[in-house]
Every structure is written in structure tokens, then in C-alpha cells.
Amino acid sequence: MTSETEISDTGQSMRSGRDAEAVSRFVERFASEMTEAGMQRMASRVFAALLADDDGSMTSAELAMALQISPAAVSGAVSYLTQVSMVGREREPGSRRDRYRLHDEVWFTTFVSRDRVLTRWENTLREGVRILGADTPAGARIAETVAFFEFLQAELGAMMERWHEHRKTLDFGPPAGHAGA
Asked: CA-to-CA distance for 108 and 100, rounded, in angstroms?
């Protein structure tokens, strides 16, 4: 399979006809934005490269070539992205190679994953309120945090439902990836 990131002598992406240098600049700029927001640098670069790929999937070798990084760097980035539910791993048919693929509705999936993290935090924080005492300054501060997370989760759930309804009105076609979870 020819990767979109393979470049002809003219600097054009061989599969898409896109300006490969412009695509690379976009990938690095978006990766930089995600890194500034707190994501690991290499994970940001790998995610941005997958996001910019028409199939939303690449092998380790394709990612290493596209980003000019080592296979070990790809492996570490993919491990992180898999852990935070942004990327899935699938076996390439008839091969021993893995492909790394964006999940369907990657942003939705990512936020749903964060929702589960908030639930775990809430449970731990409730215990903290009990241990510290709701009538202490620390207990009151933690109780406010619990209330904020409860509010955030309620709003996030309703917002995600509205997003699904809104997405149906948009002309994006089916989600680009096809790895479910």
C-alpha cells in the first residue's frame, strides 16, 4: 500500500497530489498546538500525521518515514495514543505488520474516555471529602471540585447527544476511520 506521505520528485504526495511539504507543515503546526495544550510531543506528531492521512491509518514504518522519527519513537507515541483511546491497532491483512488507525469519531471517543476518568476522580474525591470532613477548608474545596465534575459530566453527556444529532445534519459522510474501540 502506498502511503500518502510518500513524496515524488516534485514534492507532491504520490497518492493524493497534495503538496507534501504543506501537509508536513500542517502536521507539525497542529502537533505543536496539541503539545502546548499538554499532550506528549511525539504522540501529538503521530496523531496529527494520522489525522492528515486520508485513510486515518499508517504503519509504524510509514509514520517513521513521514515524521522522520525512529520506530521506537513511533512505538512510544502509539502506546500513549492507544492508552488514551485516540488510536487503535489492527493487523494488516496477510501481514505481520500493525496499522495504527484513528478511531471512528476520534474526538467523541476521546471525550467519552475522559468522562470515565472524571467518574474515577469523583469517587476518589468524595472519599477525600469524607476523610477530610466537608466542614474543613480542604474538604470544602474538594467538595466543590466534586460538584464541578458532576456538573461537567452532566453537561458533557447532553452535549455529546446533541453533537450526534447535529453531525447527522452535516455533509461529512461516514466517519473516516473504521476502528470502533
From this structure: 18
Nearest Cα residue to 47 out of 78, 22, 9: 78
Rounded to an integer, what distance in angstroms lies between the CA atom of residue 99 and that of residue 14?
A: 20
Q: pTM for the full model? A: 0.72
Handedness of CA 154, 160, 161, 162 (dihedral sign): positive
Within a 10 A sphere around the Cβ of 137, how many other Cβ atoms? 9
Question: Which one-letter amino acid corresponds to residue 98?
Answer: D
Unique residue bearing C-alpha cell 525512529: 70
Which residue shows C-alpha cell 472524571? Answer: 118
57 dihedral zone (left: phi>0; alpha: psi -120 to 50; beta): beta
Query: Rounded CA gap, 58 and 46, in Å?
Result: 10
Q: What are 46's three cell numbers?
A: 503521530
User: Which strand (E) or helix (H) includes residue 177?
Assistant: none
Tell me the three state secondary structure of residue 108.
helix
How confident is the prediction along the chain (181 residues), in pLDDT tens digits per residue? 444 444 444 333 445 678 889 999 999 999 999 999 999 999 999 999 999 999 899 999 999 999 999 999 999 999 999 988 889 988 877 878 889 999 878 887 777 777 777 888 999 999 999 999 999 999 999 999 999 999 988 888 888 889 888 988 988 766 554 444 3
